[in-house]
Amino acid sequence: MTSRLLLLVSIAILLVTTVIVALFGVVPLPEYETFASDKGFNGKLIYHVEFQSENIIPPAPDIMDSCIFFIDLSVSPAQEKEIVCNSDFYNISNDISFYDAQIHNDDQILLSYWDYGESNDRKVLIVDIESGIISESMDVAPLSENNRMNVYGEKLIEPWETTDFNSRLIGVYYVNRIDTIEVYNSRAPSNYYFESLHWSPDGDKIVAGDSENNLIIFSKRKLFTPVKIPLNYEKLDDERVELINVLGWTN
Question: Is the pTM above the cut of 0.70?
Fold first, then answer.
C-alpha cells in the first residue's frame, strides 16, 4: 500500500511539474509575418554570414568561409545574391575581416586590412555591391563607427541595452531628442536575441538580424506586423551557415 501511494504521489508531482513548466517555463519564439514584395519595401538588405563546420570534437566550429550577401526587397520570394567572400581575397591578404565592413555611397562595401607585407599601413578595399569587383582605395578615409542615426536625427538603441534576460523580454527602441520610443516588445526564449539594427533609407523602418538566422523588418510607427525573411542555405559538406551581422539597408 505504501509503495502504491508513493508511486501515485510521484506521478502527481511529475504531472504538476510538467504543467508548471509548460505554462511558465517554456517561452515560444516571437511570431512574424512572412515577407512579400507587395508590402512596398524597396532597396537592398546587406549582411554578413559565416560558413561553419559542424565539428563534434572541440575546438568547434571551424570557419570555412565568410561571405557578404544582399537581398533585393523588390523581388519576392526573397533571393540571396553573393557579393564577395573572404576566399576571394587570398591573393591579397589573409588578414581581411568582414566584421568591420561598412557600406559606402550606397553601392560599395569598404573592407580594411593591414598590409604587413609592404608598408605596414592600414589599407581599404572597395567592393562594388552589384558586380562584386574589388579595387583598392587610395583616398577613402579609414572606417569609422556607424552612429545608427536616421535622416530625422533619431538613433537606434543597441538591443543588448533593452533586453531583459531574467524576464525574457526583447525589444527594439530608438531615441529622439526627448523620448525613448518602443518599436517592438515581446517575450522570447532566453537564447533568442536581436543584433545589428539599421534604419531604412527613408528612416521609417528598421532591419535587424536575429539569433535564428532571420532578417526582421519593423515599422517605426507600428504600421505593419514585423516581417521575417528567413535565410535558407543548403548544407554543403557538413557545413552550417550563421548570420553574423547586418551591414545595412541601401536604396
Answer: yes
For residue 31, what is its C-alpha cell? 511570431
For the record, the C-alpha cell of 213 comes out as: 538566422
Write the pLDDT tens digit of every residue in 215-238: 999 999 999 999 999 987 655 666
- Domain containing residue 240: 36-250
Tell me if 84 sits within 8 A of 48, measured CB to CB.
Answer: no
Residue 151 has pLDDT above 80, yes or no: yes
Question: How does pLDDT run across 52-83, given as a tens digit for each residue?
Answer: 887 666 666 788 899 999 999 988 777 889 99
Amino acid occupying residue 18: T
When divided into structural domains, the chain yields a total of 1
**Residues 6 or more apart from 120 whose CB is under 8 A from it?**
114
**29, part of any domain:** no
Strand order in the sheet with 205-210: 33-34, 227-230, 214-219, 205-210, 194-199
Look-up of cell digits 545574391? 81
Neighbours of 111 (CB within 10 A): 24
Residue bearing cell 551591414: 247
**How far, in Å, CA of 170 to CA of 190, rounded?**
9
Please report whether residue 209 resides in a domain.
yes
What is each CA distance from 65 to 57, 84, 129, 222, 244, in whole angstroms?
20, 11, 19, 37, 12
